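Dear colleague,

As promised, here are the two records you asked about, laid out in our usual form so they can be pasted straight into your sheet.

NAME FIELD: protein one
SEQUENCE, THEN STRUCTURE:
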Amino acid sequence: GPLMVALVLRTIEAFKVFDIIWIMTRGGPANTTRTLSILVYQEGFSFQRAGSGASLALIVTLIVSVLALAYGTMLRKTAGSMV
């Protein structure tokens, strides 16, 4: 229910804050403001490890997709029981 919705939305929202954090701190000092999207960017572009960056991006995409699929399944079950 509400917990799954919050989890999916917060995970997606974590990627939406890339620009503000990157402009203000670039993930520093000492990586304290580093998010998953900044980690993916740094691996792929700053550290020139394209394979590692692509792998991280794929893993995060899969995690978000699984969470969204689980949410959709739970929503359908809940809607079906109300009918």
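NAME FIELD: protein two
SEQUENCE, THEN STRUCTURE:
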Amino acid sequence: MLTDNQRAEMRQANAALDALVVRDTRALIGTLDMNNPPAAARAMQRALPAIVTQYGNVSATVASEFYEIARDSDNVRSPFRPTLARGAAPAQVSAVARWALSPLWTPDGGDAASIAELGRNLNSATPRLVRVAGRATIERNAAREGVRYARVPRSGSCGFCQMLAGRGAVYHSKETAGGHDYHDHCNCTPERIGKGELLPYDAEALFNEYAAVTRGLSGADAIRAMNLHAKEVEARAIARVAAEDQAGAAARDASIAETLSIGASTADAIAAQAAKVAQAVQARAVAKAAEEAKAAAAAERQAATAAGKERSAELRKLADDDLDATLSAAYEADDEIAIKLIEREYTRREKAETDKIRARERRAMAKEAEQERINQLIADGMDGYDAVEEVTGITFERQRMREIVAEARAYGDTGRTFDQIARERYRTQVAQTYVEAEDVTNGRLLNAEGQRRADLPPENPLHLDDAGLFTGPAAFAERWASSELREFWDSIGGRDTFEDFKADLVSRTGANRRERQDLYR
């Protein structure tokens, strides 16, 4: 918990911040066109959020500094780093701007009285908006740390503030009604209250006083009664100070200062100390603001880079004609960023095209050099397939596969793979072999049992198709082939499966490779 001196330093720092805010709001008022409310409203909506954000960051920094001081005095050993809370919501700032300008929209808007009222509105509400960040910093860090905070009033606080302060250190959640409400010119400050710490004021006395003054009243009537009572108490205290003897005034300054928050004899000392605190806080705030500005600039650059990459990706999808049209539109709109991105895309395309041409040239030169080397090896007596494998590393089998695909394409058979072409050739050979086998065996392809099953109707599950003798598994042929068919297979080098046929097509030792090659070209 803060000491009385530390609490006074915090109030003085906030008072100095209020003075800076009022200075800038007065400067803002001086720039407004009071005879043109719409223009004044637009200017206000642009400038006021900047003021609130700038000084709100300072307010949050001040609050975090004193939160750490309060925590250090509590001798807490667990690590904890206060974070800065966000300031007033944009909608809240916008609403205050509209309310502050309301005098300009009256029939007498623009006269001295309405301008003065506008100034009072703005100079009272803007400091409250700025302090939102500081107060929220204390409240939210208390919630993060798991401790409570109390609303600490000053002597002479209004009835509303005294009523809330009388509740003690109970404000630790969003559900605590009223604990987050502050009015214009409110000097109450939220303060961290550690576990086991006493309040820096007599909450029970405030509560009892409020209960006594507002007995039988409620709502606004109770608040008005408490306000009147607070003013009477302050007036009596001031009168008592004035009536006391001059000689005893110095000794009583401390108690008067406690009653009125700041005594006359200590005002200069506190002001000097506050100036030091304000200067130190301002230096820290400037450093932190600079760090945040640097981070924000980095984030903006990152966002701009991401946006540029996204637009570049979209430009890459455009055809050349569409890209030309997009460039013309960018010139008409004077969109320098778009122009640069499009010019960069033109450069990329030109480079890509140049790279393609150079790559083709390199491949052509390499292929030409390979062919020269192959021709030389063939001239020296090496087999053509071996020469190609020697120079390129492409095996004989791969060369044959490429040749077969190239031959098929030369006859208009495009789009099919080697396996597809080989299977088609295999089916052709099977059909030819079937016809030859029928002729040689006089139609006796199946053995006796197989023939009986072949004679069954096709819908019968036991029906047998003799085509399976040539294309089915080897076990099928072994069981159902006739002796005549077996002799025929022996005469032509055996029954070919598809895998055998395909291997023969690309093998140097394939028994029928050349014959098949000549047959199916």
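A couple of things worth noting about protein two: The first strand starts at residue 148 and ends at 152. The beta strands are 148-152, 189-193.

Best,
R.
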